[in-house]
Amino acid sequence: MSYVLLLLATLAWSFVGVLVKTASTMVDSSIISFARFFFGVICLIVFLYIRDGKLQLRLGMKWIWIGAIGKAANYTFENIALHIGYSYGNILVQPVQTVVLLFAAGWLFREKISLRGWIAAAFCVVGVIVIGWNGTALDELASGSGLTTLLFTLAGIGAAVHVLSQRMLLKTMDNGNMNLSVFLLSTIIVAAPIPIQSQGFIGPITVWAWGALVLLGVITGLSFFWFAEAIKRGVPFGVVAIVGNSTVLFTILWSYLFFNDPITIYIISGTLVFVAGLLLLSFPMPRRSIRQVDDSLAAP
Questions:
Q1: For residue 296, how many other CB atoms are within 10 A of its CB?
Q2: What distance in Å separates the CA atoms of residue 232 and residue 245, rounded to the nearest whole number?
Q3: How much is the pLDDT for 159?
Q4: Cα separation of 248 and 83, whole Å?
Q5: What digits encode the pLDDT tens for the residues 223-257?
Q6: 18 Cβ partners below 8 Å, 6+ apart?
Q7: What's the domain of life for this entry (predicted)?
């Protein structure tokens, strides 16, 4: 069962790009951001009430607000980039998040970064650059894929801020109520500008688009539980690292199968480079290993 939960979480995250692209045929990116949090909060409320019989909201804590702002930025920039770019583009979020967390570990928490950590960070950066470039001429890069790469980079920074908040909050809160508090505030944050800037429904209303919005919320609300539960039930760390990072490969596969997005040699090469960096950072060294920022509970 633990392996099934791990696979569920991995597959759920890999479908985010396809689901956002499907939902964007009906509503704009602002509504998608709101729906991801709104339906996610509903899922969490139902889950936590069934599990605990009560809810414990903590909305006055500094790190709750920091995490909410980070996650809101993550979803906002990611959804805009997916709307204007390809459905596999969000594979850039994970390596950016990893590099930011690595620097945060050294800067904020004074943790020693090993040579292996710097090499892994370099692999991630090179992979992101290759994918962002994608063989495009410089003039086209500035107006096209360069913009989406910038947006995904900002989304990755927001995701890293959210993970840092989790690290601080897990000292005093359980992950379920922590994420409920963070996602509830994130819902309010992304909802605030909707009346002024959102175009609302921009295309035909379809069952597929509504289904995509709801599924995005379910992924936001429950995927991190599946992932955390798989780890808790004793899935070997090596398996977690390999299966967890295979998300990007599934994402590329779905984008090709569902939208026929062009998968170039640059996309494949860049992906392999940053996945190598992620795996290099994920596998612990037998001696003198550094303590990493724990992003195993980060929801996409």
A1: 15
A2: 18
A3: 92
A4: 18
A5: 877 877 777 777 776 677 777 778 888 999 999 99
A6: 87, 254, 255, 258, 259
A7: Bacteria
